Hints:
The chain is an alpha+beta fold. It has a single domain (2-135), classed as SMI1/KNR4-like (3-Layer(aba) Sandwich). Helix content is 41%, strand content 20%. It has helices spanning 2-14, 26-36, 42-50, 63-73, 124-138; strands at 21-22, 53-55, 59-60, 82-88, 91-96, 107-110, 117-121. It has a four-stranded antiparallel β-sheet with strand order 4-5-6-7. A three-stranded antiparallel β-sheet has the order 1-2-3, with no helix packed on it. The protein is globular. The model has no long low-confidence stretch (mean pLDDT 88).
Amino acid sequence: MELYRSKIRELLEFNNLREHFYKEKEETIQEVEERLNVKLPGSYRWFLKEYGGGGNGVYVNGCTDILYYHDRFNSFNIPKGYIIIEHCDEYSYCLDTEKMMNNECPIVNWSSHEKGIYPEADNFYEHLLEGIENAIENEWWEE
């Protein structure tokens, strides 16, 4: 896991992306877990405390956004244990906390407009690294 963390730090720092995130406090993360009755994976908790939500070119929902999207999509029968970590108009990337193993869970692509659920990554680290690398390669951040 430290290898993932080092690579994420390196890419975010080298491309001056840290300033676009806002750190979350442990108490706030715990409040989200209690309110949604889930345990967030270690990788996501680490990122929220180290960097937080927000972004520029790479977007990650912080605690306020997690709660907002959960409330927004609750009437669309979002599957139990799904935590929206990035909403992209017609679909959302979600942590599937019902499939937690070794303090990590898969990321899925879920849409309130269709029935399919599509695997995205084995864990948040992999999902985030792919997003950062795509943003750098395609120069998706605003200056």
